[in-house]
């Protein structure tokens, strides 16, 4: 009976690890951003131009800094489990994200695309402030913001995607990375900010 309990526990951890890695925030945000680049660009050439121009600030600089910080011991692990280490990395990421948004503006990307970038920036700022006092879940915050943007941009037919937030949050609980309310807090923050930013940009109506 004890062995069965251990096996069940191991499978839970393995499954939780799979969900955590599959929905790793930088990965989800990067994939969705790349999709938006080619979705809203007029052709492949313009899409590549946008991607090449913005990628250093949105992807490469943060990743290089993150890898260097991990190597030098400035951060303890890939999940930034120690809340005190988060503001250090997030400050650099916010500078890069701000530069990326400015570039997107001057590239004259569609407003829907810019709205998503701005919502991500605002979420990161608020989450960075909150994390000074409370370890809010970036897993649920970032993935929820992406799913919310998909629903706003693509319509209500994508609402079932929101159900994925459940196993993502569950995985963070099983791995003991967050408490229940930290997981819920990340999700609520994402929904509130993403909806508000898109509304301020004039995109508040969902299509069927």
How would you describe this structure in keywords?
208 residues; mainly alpha; globular
Q: Structural class per helix/strand content?
A: mainly alpha
Percent range for helical residues?
A: over 70%
Strand fraction equals under 5%
How large, in whole angstroms, is the Cα Rg?
18 Å
Distance between the termini: 50 Å
Number of domains: 1
**Average pLDDT across residues?**
87
The best one-word shape is globular
Instruction: Note poorly predicted spans.
Output: none
User: How is the main sheet built?
Assistant: none
Number of strands: 0
- List SSEs in N-to-C order: HHHHHHHH
Structure annotation, total helices: 8
Describe the structure.
The protein has helices at residues 2-22, 25-40, 44-72, 86-106, 111-130, 138-154, 165-174, 180-200. It is mostly helical and 208 residues long. The chain has one domain. The longest helix is centred in the first third of the chain and has 29 residues, at 44-72. The model has no long low-confidence stretch (mean pLDDT 87).
Strand and helix map with partners:
Layout: H1 2-22, H2 25-40, H3 44-72, H4 86-106, H5 111-130, H6 138-154, H7 165-174, H8 180-200
Helix pairs in contact: 1-7, 2-3, 2-6, 3-4, 4-5, 5-6, 5-8, 6-7, 6-8, 7-8
Kindly summarize this structure in a few lines.
This protein has 208 residues and is an all-alpha fold.
């Amino acid at each position: 009976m004890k062995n069965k309990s251990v096996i069940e526990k191991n499978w839970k951890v393995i499954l939780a690890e799979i969900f955590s890695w599959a929905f790793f925030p930088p990965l989800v945000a990067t994939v969705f951003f790349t999709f938006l680049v080619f979705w809203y660009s007029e052709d492949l050439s313009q899409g590549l131009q946008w991607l090449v121009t913005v990628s250093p600030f949105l992807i490469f600089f943060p990743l290089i800094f993150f890898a260097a910080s991990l190597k030098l011991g400035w951060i303890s692990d890939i999940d930034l489990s120690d809340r005190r280490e988060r503001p250090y990395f997030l400050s650099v990421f916010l500078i890069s994200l701000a530069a990326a948004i400015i570039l997107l503006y001057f590239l004259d990307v569609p407003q829907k695309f810019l709205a998503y970038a701005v919502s991500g920036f605002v979420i990161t700022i608020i989450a960075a402030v909150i994390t000074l006092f409370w370890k809010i879940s970036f897993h649920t915050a970032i993935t929820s913001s992406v799913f919310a943007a998909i629903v706003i941009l693509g319509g209500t037919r994508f609402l079932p995607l929101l159900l994925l937030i459940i196993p993502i949050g569950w995985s963070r609980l099983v791995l003991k990375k967050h408490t229940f309310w930290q997981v819920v807090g990340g999700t609520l923050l994402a929904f509130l900010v993403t909806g508000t930013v898109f509304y301020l940009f004039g995109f508040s109506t969902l299509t069927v």
